[in-house]
Write a structure and sequence with these properties.
Order of helices and strands: HHHH
Number of strands: 0
Radius of gyration: 16 Å
Number of helices: 4
Shape: elongated
Oligomer: single chain
Distance between the termini: 23 Å
């Protein structure tokens, strides 16, 4: 599905679907192991899980950095895609 998404016109150019899959899988695995260490009650865990989902959506939709503020990083990524 990630490969299909990466090839669609709804995604940015240059996405590496396999690596994106590894990143998302790592978040899922790590959240499962870390959350129980940080949250004792079910309500706090549920609230934190919702916040994690929201932040993942934000990262997927918008990213974190403003590309115009990071021209050297943008240049490196653009060169890797070519």
């Amino acid at each position: 599905q990630l490969e299909k998404l990466a090839k669609s016109d709804r995604a940015r150019d240059g996405i590496h679907p396999e690596m994106l899959g590894h990143i998302l899988m790592a978040v899922g695995i790590m959240w499962g192991t870390q959350a129980s260490a940080f949250y004792d009650d079910e309500a706090a865990l549920s609230k934190a899980t919702d916040a994690l989902g929201r932040e993942l959506k934000r990262l997927l939709l918008y990213g974190v950095l403003k590309p115009e503020a990071w021209p050297e990083l943008t240049r490196v990524i653009d060169e890797e895609v070519e």
